[in-house]
Design brief:
Pept_M24, Pept_M24A_MAP1, about 25% helix, four-stranded antiparallel sheet, alpha+beta, about 260 residues, initiator methionyl aminopeptidase activity, three-stranded antiparallel sheet, single chain, 4 helices
């Protein structure tokens, strides 16, 4: 596993890119409401990255088959990689918006959950528990800790609440490339896996299902849904391993918290 340790100059650029990703997620919040389509959200994100932030949406034409849009919008039982479309959001939907901006050769990647109108208490509990799962994983990051420590922390929060952890998709290193080593899974055993070092930057982004963990990928080659059609939620932050612990690079400038 060839993990890239970032230089102080690269870390500064990644702080800037993380802030830009978080600003885009702050910006889009006011537009998430019943009747709006995810295509409209996609266009707003695209224009904000390009015209306001001076960057480029990294998901656009990424991968094979090429991803056709500028962000991922995953509604209700969509786990991840939802492709924006013309279906209007409705009251009670839950939505994950995942953005990655590329600028000056670096990437900033983050995602958040949004409530569309008034959501059920059941949906809110899933969203809140998924956020707690992510934060539990982040809280153990420090030099000498392992990837297994992160996965274990995420998994304990989710499963203790009665939910399941998606195992086929994971967090990842990030920097000059959209996806780098290491792969950061959200389940595991303490003390196992790669040891963390100061200067590593990666995402922690648990996908938590209300029902069973099993999934299927739709014929578009991207959209991942829960097999039992239960709700799924995801949060994502970019994390730097510091000399003494961690720094979250994608904290919301609007709210000042992760």
């Amino acid at each position: 596993m060839s993990v890239i340790i970032k230089t102080p100059e690269e870390i500064e650029k990644m702080r800037e890119l993380g802030r830009l990703a978080a600003e885009a997620l702050d910006y889009i919040e006011d537009f998430v409401k019943p009747g709006v389509t995810t295509n409209e959200i996609n266009q707003l994100i695209h224009d904000y990255h390009v015209n306001v932030q001076g960057g480029y949406p990294a998901p656009l034409y990424y991968g094979d088959p090429p991803f056709p849009k500028s962000c991922c919008t995953s509604v209700n039982h969509v786990i991840c990689h939802g492709i924006p479309d013309d279906k209007p959001l409705k009251n009670g939907d839950i939505l994950n918006i995942d953005v990655t901006i590329k600028k000056d050769g670096f990437h900033g990647d983050s995602s958040r959950m949004y409530a569309v109108g008034n959501i059920s208490a059941v949906a809110k509990r899933l969203i809140d528990t998924t956020h707690a799962s992510m934060m539990a994983g982040i809280s153990v990051v420090r030099p000498g800790a392992t990837l297994g420590d992160i996965g274990y922390a995420c998994q304990q929060v989710a499963e203790n609440a009665g939910y399941s952890v998606v195992q086929e998709f994971c967090g990842h290193g990030i920097g000059r490339r959209f996806h780098e080593d290491p792969q950061v899974v959200h389940y595991g055993r303490k003390g196992q896996g790669l040891k963390l070092q100061s200067g590593m930057i990666f995402t922690i982004e648990p996908m938590i299902n209300q029902g069973k963990r099993h999934l299927k990928i739709l014929s578009d080659g991207w959209t991942v849904v829960t097999k039992d059609r239960s709700l799924s939620a995801q949060w994502e932050h970019e994390v730097l391993v510091t000399d003494t612990g961690y720094e979250i690079l994608t904290i919301s400038p609007k709210y000042g918290k992760p």
